[in-house]
Specification:
alpha+beta; four-stranded antiparallel beta sheet; 5 helices
């Protein structure tokens, strides 16, 4: 999201040098860079904030005091000619720690309303989730390499030499990882000796919620991404269907609790998928030991204690 500056009465001001554009002939007044969102009926999806009418901005993930400080710093920055502050909540992270994007709490529509969609994606229904953060990208080779450097007995993916990734692909998604590998990486990342944060694989609901969020990259058509959600034992028909119920035992964050013969859901499709298969609602599944060159992982960070 691009950050706007404010007048004393909290109106959004045009950028420096654009005053005439915002008030001259043919102009409709101040505007907001929606970063891919949409301005509809007087409101705008600001990717982390809500623009209501033309005179108020509220920000998800900040206290009122923090917003006041940020707005004041933004004003001072413009007066001094320095770039405005970034409004997306960020966290300090290790050099090898995945970058994450905040996803605000609230309800969303999960599943497909298309009557021709696969039955596994129906019915469309409302799911409410708490705040969480999700990886901006699938986990990269350089990030997974830090895990293997520390866990020296954990097997490296195919194509690595002496447990080192190809040097010309360090920012590519790691692939050829099983569900067990992906979960082990999340457990390692959460270790107090590493980050001490609560990382795991996304649930199907978290992944699909993020699929409608601006700022989260490579969700569709890059690599398939493991989730912690069970599918069932039969590849063609899910035993864990919709409506999505996280309390029915479908979410597995502990490999020791994985049922025998269980298949796990993966999301996002890959570069091998047909265009029609690249949908936010599409569900795939695989055995947890499966490793292929077009499947990797993405992490979520939980901000609340698990219930």
């Amino acid at each position: 999201m691009s950050v706007d500056t404010f007048s004393d009465d909290n109106r959004i001001l045009p950028p420096p040098g654009k005053e005439e554009d915002a008030t001259g002939a043919g102009a409709s007044g101040p505007s907001v860079n929606t970063d891919g969102g949409a301005y509809v009926g007087g409101s705008v999806n600001t990717t982390g904030g809500t623009f209501i009418g033309r005179d108020q901005v509220t920000y998800v993930g900040y206290t009122a005091e923090e917003v006041e400080r940020i707005v004041e710093r933004t004003r001072r920055g413009q007066e001094a000619g320095t770039p405005p502050v970034e409004m997306t909540p960020t966290i300090k992270r290790q050099p090898w720690e995945p970058e994450t994007i905040p996803i605000p709490a609230g309800p969303f529509l999960m599943g497909s309303a298309d009557p021709n969609a696969p039955r596994a994606e129906q019915p469309q229904h409302t799911v409410a989730l708490p705040d969480f953060r999700i990886g901006k990208y699938p986990v990269k080779l350089r990030e997974y390499a830090a895990f293997l450097k520390d866990r020296k007995t954990h097997p490296a993916p195919q194509g690595w030499f002496n447990r080192e990734p190809p040097p010309d692909r360090l920012d590519h998604p790691v692939t050829d990882v099983s569900w067990h590998d992906a979960l082990a990486y999340c457990v390692w990342l959460s270790d107090p000796k590493q980050t001490g944060r609560r990382y795991t694989l996304p649930s199907e609901a978290e992944w699909e919620r993020a699929c409608g969020q601006s700022g989260v990259e490579d969700l569709l058509g890059a690599v398939q991404q493991w989730t912690r959600s069970l599918w069932g034992t039969q590849p063609q028909q899910p035993e864990y269907g919709y409506p999505y119920d996280p309390s029915d035992g479908r979410e597995i964050a502990d490999a020791a609790k994985l049922p025998a013969q269980a298949r796990l859901v993966h999301r996002g499709g890959s570069f091998k998928s047909q265009p029609a298969e690249l949908r936010c609602t599409a569900r795939g599944n695989a055995l947890p030991d499966s490793k292929i060159a077009w499947r990797g992982l993405r992490v979520v960070m939980h901000l609340e204690e698990p219930k």
